[in-house]
TrEMBL record:
The keyword Signal applies. PROSITE patterns: PROKAR_LIPOPROTEIN (PS51257). This is Choloylglycine hydrolase. It comes from Sulfurovum riftiae. The keyword Signal applies. Residues 26-345 form the Choloylglycine hydrolase/NAAA C-terminal domain. GO terms for molecular function: hydrolase activity. Residues 1-25 form the signal peptide.
Length: 365
């Protein structure tokens, strides 16, 4: 298969600084429905436009990882997968495979440091975009992924990422399976550090363990509205519904989004079915929607504004991949079960579309 990676370019530096700080504000979360469907999703933000398409990658697809020394790890896809690619680089950076395993990359600036590619590790090395496709291609469960990482079966080489600005981009990764189990994988000092993720939430920097510790600052948050209290004989009542969440951080920084995502996912009432759970996850992620202009930087005289380009939801029980875009808020769905997963080519659909407004004036009676 032609992976169309000639535009990647190679760079042999350790990943510590990344040029333009066009920060990404992606947020991920997970819920489980009453019928045991595991539903997870994420937002996709960046400070410059990312050209994205949705693809279905069949079983038997051959891949070659890219490294700073040339070709790296080679593999043939054991499982079919569906998800998002960037430009013409036909490896999925956010997706789900036919066994319900989900993996996705999230921006991790200031902390990610990939391994240095050498002749000794070149055969197990690949780019930061290749590794998500490798997970989807080869594994059924989170435990299988953990075992492969513990056995040092893969290393990330600091090559350029197609579709992003021309600096080595820093990522960490989340993996879910259809049981709801989750891990976060972070490239630290050239090694891949693995954290168990009991809450299924991920944002960006700093490290995952820091975010989990930070949750201790918000143990007072409650889903229900607190009762009135007596203060020196006076009755003090909440000002309205939602007072239990008073103090919930509302800004767009990664720590604040992590706390909000954890609070919303934990306090949501489980829906009865997977379909309802998908809509519930979209509602949760709507709370992290960033309009153009409210989160921005000015660099070299140019404005870079993070905004929510895509929102993605994955139904790991029914193998359905949903998305909507900034320009088109209507929800679209790809059903893996409707494809020949032993097909001979990668099928593709660009995410670009325009919102249609439904005029219901004539329906009034």
């Amino acid at each position: 298969m032609n992976l169309k990676k000639t535009t990647i370019g190679l760079i042999a530096i350790a990943v510590t600084t990344f040029g333009l700080s066009t920060a990404s504000a992606c947020t991920g979360a997970q819920v489980v429905t009453e019928d045991k469907a595991v539903i997870n999703g994420r937002t996709v933000e960046f400070g410059v436009f990312l050209d994205t398409s949705i693809v279905v990658v069949p079983r038997g697809t051959k891949f070659t990882g890219m490294t700073t020394l040339g070709e790296g790890k080679k593999w043939t896809s054991k499982y079919a997968s569906v998800g998002m690619i960037l430009v013409d680089n036909e490896v999925i950076v956010d997706g789900m495979n036919e066994k319900g395993l989900v993996t996705a990359s999230f921006y991790f600036p200031g902390y990610a440091k990939y391994s240095v590619t050498t002749k000794e590790n070149q055969k197990i090395s690949m780019s930061s975009s290749d590794i998500t496709q490798w997970f989807l291609s080869m594994f059924e469960t989170v435990d299988e992924v953990k075992t492969a990482l513990e056995n040092n079966e893969v290393a990330i080489s600091p090559v350029l990422t197609p579709g992003f600005p021309p600096q080595v981009q820093p990522f960490h990764f989340i993996v879910y399976d259809r049981t709801g189990k989750s891990i976060v994988i972070e490239p630290m000092d050239g090694k891949l550090k693995v954290y168990n993720n009991p809450i299924g939430v991920i944002t960006n920097s700093p490290t995952f363990d820091w975010h989990m510790t930070n949750l201790s600052n918000y143990v007072n948050l409650l889903a229900h509205t607190p009762d009135e209290v007596k203060v020196f004989g006076a009755t003090v009542k909440p000002l309205g519904q939602g007072a239990g969440m008073l103090g919930l951080p509302g800004d767009f920084t990664p720590p604040s989004r992590f706390v909000r995502a954890a609070a919303f996912a934990a306090s949501s009432i489980p829906e009865k079915t997977a379909q309802r759970g998908v809509l519930q996850m979209f509602h949760i992620l709507n709370s992290f929607d960033i309009p153009v202009g409210v989160a921005r930087t000015i660099e070299e005289g140019k404005i870079f504004s993070d905004y929510t380009m895509l929102t993605v939801v994955r139904d790991t029980k029914n193998l359905r991949y949903y998305y909507k875009t900034y320009e088109d808020q209507s929800i679209k769905m790809i059903d893996m079960k409707s494809f020949d997963l032993d097909g001979k080519k990668i099928l593709r659909l660009h995410t670009k579309s325009e919102q249609q407004i439904n005029d219901v004036s004539k329906k009034l009676k």
